[in-house]
Amino acid sequence: MRALCGKFSLAFVSSKLNVEFGETAVIGSDVRMYSGVVIGTISHLPGKRHPTIEDDVLIRANALLLGAIRIGRGAKISAGAVVRRDVSPGVVIRLVQAKLYRQLQRRVCLTADAGN
Predict the structure, then answer these.
(1) Residue 74's closest CA among 63, 87, 65?
(2) Is residue 55's pLDDT more than 70?
(3) Residue 18 resides in a domain
(4) Which has the higher per-residue pLDDT, 111 or 86?
(5) If you write DSSP's letter for every residue of the chain in order, what string do you get?
(6) What is the pLDDT of residues 88-109, one digit of tens each?
(7) What is the CATH number of the domain that holds 97?
(8) With bands split at pLDDT 50, 70 and 90, how would you rate the model's confidence at 85?
(9) Of residues 108 and 25, which shows the higher confidence score?
(10) Nearest alpha-carbon partner for 53 in 35, 43, 66, 62
(11) Is residue 40 assigned to a domain?
(12) Number of structural domains found in the chain
């Protein structure tokens, strides 16, 4: 796979575009990144070396995502966080140590059937 595979919409929220992607990085759809984000590696061996970022992820300024890790759908990475382990879907990661801050609650939407 190449970087930025598949259908995606990627929003950079910054006046200065300064985001770095590794060549084996995979970015999902509706991912928002602020300036200074690095999606890099800690290895130069062949094969998958860069993060896979699933859909609807928010990555704040100057965050570092390093290695063949997976960032789960809907996760939020705070500014300046250094992430070297997988991040579960729907969690908030903050601080340089990139510790779990809290689990987000899943929203349940109830819709009325217009045909009844």
Answers:
(1) 87
(2) yes
(3) yes
(4) 86
(5) --TT-SS--EEEESSS---EE-TT-EE-SSEEEETT-EEE-S--SSS--S-EE-TT-EE-TT-EEESS-EE-TT-EE-TT-EE-S-B-TTEEEETTTTEEEEEPPPP------TT-
(6) 999 999 876 656 667 777 666 6
(7) 2.160.10.10
(8) very high
(9) 25
(10) 66
(11) yes
(12) 1
| Domain presence at residue 1 | no
Strand 99-103, strand 91-94: pairing: antiparallel
Between CA 115 and CA 112 the distance in angstroms is: 9
The residue behind tokens 């340089």 is 96
Place of tokens 């992430």: 83
Domain contains 81? yes
pTM, rounded to two decimals: 0.70
Close Cβ partners of 90 (under 8 Å, ≥ 6 residues apart):
72, 73, 74, 75, 103, 104, 106
Which residues form the domain of 23?
Answer: 10-103
